[in-house]
Amino acid sequence: MEPLATAKTLDGAGRLAGHFLAASVDASAQGDFWSKAGSNILSQLLLAAALDGRPITDIMQWLAFPADRSPLDILRDHGFAAVAAQLKGTVEGPPETRDGIYETARQYAAALLNTEIAAWVTPQKDVAEFRPADFVTSTDTLFLLSKDGGGGASALIAACADSVMRAATAQAERAGGRLDPPMLAILDEAANVCKISDLPDLYSHLGSRGIIPITILQSYRQGQKVWGDAGMDAMWSASTVKVIGSGIDDPDFADKLSRLIGDHDVETTSTSHSESGKSTSVSMRQERILPADAIRALPKGTALCFATGMRAAMLDLRPWYAEPGAKELSAASARASQAITARANAKHAPSQGDYGTAA
Q1: Assuming Cys at both sites, which of 77, 132, 261, 279 could form a disulfide with 312, CB separation 3.0 to 4.6 Å?
Q2: Which residues, in sequence order, are bridge partners of residue 282?
Q3: What is the percentage of the chain residues whose pLDDT exceeds 70?
């Protein structure tokens, strides 16, 4: 995929720069001066590279040498004089400030120094380019994989996923409002490798476009770390179906779930004795259906389900290896694992030069 394909406008370049920012900095630190300034410089250079038809890796050359006037000339030649003026102001500003801003931007884009990562996002003559606009009208499946967490290729993974969802939204609008058939976007480990900054906002309208996002997180707090308290609350509220598995160790979240499940009436009988004899009274009191400690102790294989317009439900999960096609899936998984092992061994196979002279 060519990530600069959507960066030929200021908004598109800013969105791409935002993915590099989100992959490197938690939500709580994204508003400080250096983060914002580094992201702005990155967006300006991405815009220049996109307008001039350059590969995205060229921005690392510009970041290494702020005095290079190429991006300034490109921006002016394409009618972005105001953006060029902003870039020039940073370049010609106090050296300490300029160097700090450029170093921040270099850290955000450091993944592009990895030649193996860069090869996936650099146009090549003999390799077909992945085009999101074509993909969303097909019946193909796209798998985006990244082995590491923050940094690394996660910014490019997020950029690709975001481009696909935006292309799907545009296609839905052209088709009358909704994709048919719908597109399923499963964002597993989204807080590690697919940090789309405005994902909580996208949740509010993607469903109405026939785009069904499924975000899988390790915990509620993990989402708060990436999208902030307000963002995670917004995504939680906009989700029409929420499934929470066992292993909840966050007392605040467990109590929140307990309150959402609700209370039930419990009959209490009390007996009193007096000179006139014994009397019995029955009263009702409310009690949590599932207290926080019971939620924490949910056994493996069970989950809580909160769906819009329905009371909470307890689910018995069915593992994939209990499904009818488990044998075929197991065989395919074994073949894939063997291929991964073979590639890893070939990449790191010892050679004669790795050994010293025999004694």
Answers
A1: 261
A2: 269
A3: 94
Q: What is the average per-residue pLDDT within 245-271?
A: 90
pLDDT bracket for residue 296 (50, 70, 90): very high
Q: How far apart are CA 224 and CA 215, in angstroms?
A: 13
Question: 199: burial class by Cβ within 10 Å (0-12, 13-18, 19+)?
Answer: buried
**C-alpha angle 21-145-140 in degrees, rounded to nearest 5:** 115
Q: State the average pLDDT for the chain.
A: 88
Q: What would the pLDDT profile of 105-114 be if each residue is shown by its tens digit? A: 999 999 888 8
d(CA 251, CA 257): 10
Using alpha carbons, list the distances in angstroms from residue 102 to 25, 37, 39, 150, 345. 16, 9, 10, 20, 38
pLDDT above 60 for 4: yes
The Cα 345–Cα 350 span in angstroms is: 9
Long-range contacts of 305-310 (CB under 8 A, 24+ apart): 305/241, 305/242, 305/243, 305/244, 306/241, 306/242, 306/243, 306/244, 306/260, 307/240, 307/241, 307/242, 308/240, 308/241
> Which is nearest to 136 in space by CA: 165, 101, 103, 99?
165
What are the boundaries of each domain within the chain? Answer: 1-116
Statement: the pTM of the whole predicted model exceeds 0.85: no
